[in-house]
Amino acid sequence: MCDRRLAPLGSTRKHLGTKVQIRVRRGGKSGEVVVKFYDLDHFDGLMGRMGFVMR
Is 0.85 topped by the overall pTM? Predict the structure, then answer.
């Protein structure tokens, strides 16, 4: 993966305050973003930072 594609990784880690992985599939047109959380409180905080409202 080239450096310009990895640039958002550092800012995403910093914004969320946790480990983040970007996995790109063969061909480079799709993939996954993996966000680590360590307990449910941490998960709730991450969801809030991503803009989700817990109901």
Answer: no
